[in-house]
């Protein structure tokens, strides 16, 4: 492959260019195209990640104002801190519910909107509208909807149901958050699954129908296997974004009531800017990134082994 | 529902089969749109009226009795107008610069074979596996050292280096026939010419899809502008909206109007470019 690109075409005098001049070498040309983006990625992603790792191994003494190397001490402090474990617990419960929930609903919606019926485009557009809502904006909107004297309780009253505390109750706050986030997320992931569904060859369904497969069996044996790759992508991307939820917590609950919504990203910011221990916060950043990467790689493995 | 497809069904289930999806889709569509309809109608009301009507549900909940544009006027005269203008500027520059840079990188990774290409690609993949919001704190310290706080450059830069955009475009570029490139090279076209005159024009759908990724990242950003743009003149839309809500006596009319503005702009983009987005996903090998 590489050889076909080698002869510099507009140089008829160069009879046998054994050694190419430096600026004609493919690697140099390619790196020229790559340089701006690589510089950005290294400076804006990899370098701060390295800084986070390094910073997590330091400690600044408030009394003396000196920063010293403490090795893994910050991690040890976190592992003995009940607040940290509460935050980990909340983050795991939140993700165990919201990720399968969002993917299943998105899949259901994609299957529904892949059918042909009157008004399909219009209703699909309505489901997509919340995708445009930035997280901070949806937090503000749902903050009003969830007010104890707000429209949702007014709606319950119309049906003679008792008012609910929503975000003000430790039992309901996380659930209320999950509903709010799903309102935005589900339509977005549906777009990817819909694209995947539309690419499944119709004759696969025809063949299954001729074999007498029921709608459910066609879904399990044709749709799901064909949709494996978009499903894997959606699950992984959704999980990464849900491990990093921050704006709604900061705007609505500040982690409360009683720490019921204290997701790790909020805990990190709380430690860095309210408590003021940046190095401890960076240790938690490293743990969060590590947990996310482990879960994502497990998901990849599970979804790939299903291939065989 | 029975699982015996052979037997002819009675009229009832058949009607359900025929109209079921449409009815279900309509119900779901309306359910998703209702909160926004409520926000929109709220944005056309006095704040006092919003409060008075908050605990009652009637047909006026979704249709304001006498609509007014006062809230929008209030917004434009305050800091919020500047914040929206900042958001538009920051997003537009991010998309333009980010697309050129990402497409160039994708070209370097797909069109020109060279030793070490795998390693460079690994750096790209690694950089989008590191979640940006999680490393925002150390990055903001770096930006403070470089005096990039409260500057447009500081707000824009993190949005430009987007590994996902490079990845999407690369997948598309890989499908461009190599014969086309060789023919062009023999005709004396330089590498930049191959990139700019062949690859870019062929790749409109994926460029639009990647541009949308870059745009949404910047438009929805919250953590980064909170850390880096604290001065009112450099605030972005979502932060300004959060400030409106955080006031002691929040002006709900203005908050609703602000929400409508911050939603309307990406909504137009998404609904218009939905088709390209789906296309870019279809060809990206994500499936």
TrEMBL record, chain A:
GO cellular component: plasma membrane
Keywords: Cell membrane, Membrane, Transmembrane, Transmembrane helix, Transport
Membrane topology of this protein: Multi-pass membrane protein
Broad class of the protein's primary localization: membrane
Subcellular location: Cell membrane
Transmembrane feature ranges: 27-47, 92-114, 126-146, 173-195, 231-252, 272-296
A family per Pfam: BPD_transp_1
Protein name (Swiss-Prot/TrEMBL): Carbohydrate ABC transporter membrane protein 1 (CUT1 family)
Lineage: Bacteria, Bacillati, Actinomycetota, Actinomycetes, Streptosporangiales
TrEMBL record, chain B:
Listed SUPFAM superfamilies: MetI-like
Subcellular location: Cell membrane
Stored CDD domains: TM_PBP2
GO BP annotations, alphabetical order: transmembrane transport
Entry keywords, A to Z: Cell membrane, Membrane, Transmembrane, Transmembrane helix, Transport
Membrane topology designation: Multi-pass membrane protein
Domain ABC transmembrane type-1: 84-273
Pfam families, per the entry: BPD_transp_1
Record flagged with keyword Acetylation: no
InterPro entries found in the cross-reference section: MetI-like, MetI-like_sf
Domain of life per record: Bacteria
Transmembrane feature ranges: 21-40, 80-107, 119-140, 152-173, 194-217, 252-271
This protein's GO CC annotations: plasma membrane
Sequence similarity: Belongs to the binding-protein-dependent transport system permease family.
Record's protein name: Carbohydrate ABC transporter membrane protein 2 (CUT1 family)
